Amino acid sequence: MAPAEQDIIKEGNALFRAYLIPDDGSGGKWEQKGVPTKAMPVFYNPKMGENRDLSVFAVQAWNRGKRNSLTMGDIFCGSGIRGIRYITDLMNVSPRVDFVDMNPKAIKSCRQNLKLNGIDESEHGLHVRGANDFLYQKALHKEERFDVIDVDPFGNPMKYMSGALEALDRKRGLLHVNATDLAVLAGVHFLPARRKYQTIPLKNVTYHAEQAARIVVGAIARKAMQLDIGITPLLSMADKHFIKLVLETKHGATHANRLLPEVGYIVQCRICWNKFTVPMEAIVKQDTCPFCSGNKMDHGGPIWIGELQNKQFCLKVYQVSRTMDLKQSSKSLQRKIHLCFEEAGMTVMSFDIHQLSKEMKVGPPKLEDIISKLEERGWKASRTQFNPTGIKTLAPREIVRDIVLELEK
Question: Exposure pattern of 158-192 as b/e (b: 16+ CB <10 Å)?
Fold first, then answer.
């Protein structure tokens, strides 16, 4: 039987009470393989600490002193830790946060945690409401729309995207989205992927994490275009437990029209793994591979085929991560942010060097050596946050193969 007591935890500069999974494995319905479930009285996942660090860094980098105050929506707030950390951790800005959750126990927990941190509850909002009900109401009133909305549901976020997009400031808004239904996004559960994201993922690919991010961004982009809203991915990150997206939004048909060429399909050979993207308007089905004797090609999508990282923004987030005094923020998160910066402007999907080496029956060289050789030949190249054994480069596949063989000798 899991204990009913809550523990006081410190994350960033915030103190809060939260239910934790017992170390002795007696979590019962609260956990599944060590991960919290919906059965927890008030949902809290300690493994999302880095995710919340990144949220704080991203808002700090996005605002950069432009506004003295920000209106923010913490949707599915649970214990309130994400919204409270915005209040306690952001520098030189006074956030006004609306905490939203259908669970009355969650809002009670938020109220207790605000008090624990000495935060005046009257300066913020506490709402026992459904997410869409709350967001659509905010969207109706210009003066109530948000600068920043953070949508962190249990699983699939798509059913809340229309409300979130509409409830952001028309001129410029920041949308944080978490998706944790990674098995669906990897194509393990085919029908839910088609139903929830209106896409067909490629299965058993080495770039499944990046494909997952592109599926979610692509689905949000298609939703945004229907609403005459443009989105710009600023930073995209994958982890064992989540896909994290930071998107800037601007309203207007002109901004929405710019998304049209950014949504398309990934096409990959079943044998040689050669892959390329095609925009949606190029409705030409490539059935055979042009590079390896006409083997069959698989088609995945629609997905986002544009940029996932904004180089300038990723650099700002990295700089913020090095200057903000969040003691629990790990060096590993800083490395991930820097990898996002490095891979900005590179190709869609990566070359998996272990897969390529296995195909060529040679040992895999060090990624740094391959990148160095590519740069010597005038090709840009980098590692990728999405795949620890992958590289991104504008060089053709044949060049990468030649370098792998050269390094083997």
Answer: bebbbbbbbbbbeeebbbbbbbbbbebbbbeeeee
